[in-house]
Amino acid sequence: MEEHVEAPMEGREDAAAAREQAELKERVMQRQRQKVNGAGGDEQAVPLKELQEHAAARNGGAGHGEIDLNSLIDVQVTLSVEIGRCRLPIKQLISLNQGSVVELDRMVDEPLDLLVNGTLIAHGEVVVVDGQFGLRLIDVVSQTERLKKLK
Predict the structure, then answer these.
(1) Range of the structural domain that residue 53 is part of
(2) Statement: the pTM of the whole predicted model exceeds 0.70
């Protein structure tokens, strides 16, 4: 006669969390492969909430778990530098042509914004490195402030 031993609830939760982690890693890797192969017009980002829930489940449901950066280390992001903004009525916009000057909302001596995927992460000043522009960071936005803006 075969004896059946039921796994404790803890083991089931750990197994489910491990499956979720494996599925999430596979999705991230699949998106990276699509980007490398030139595909990806139908890509969907992994929502931050999903990553946080995954991390919380992995850490025993604590709710404030750490995200395992090793699974995200090869994900590419877009860095951009913003020198300023302005608002124009469409009437003015369509009248712009070569030689037009658009006045921005930033003074010459103010630091520029460094954005990662559209999210402000630092301020800096322009430098020239081997004939190319660069940005020397002078102030990095705290992780707490960055996360507040995502919610």
Answers:
(1) 1-74
(2) no
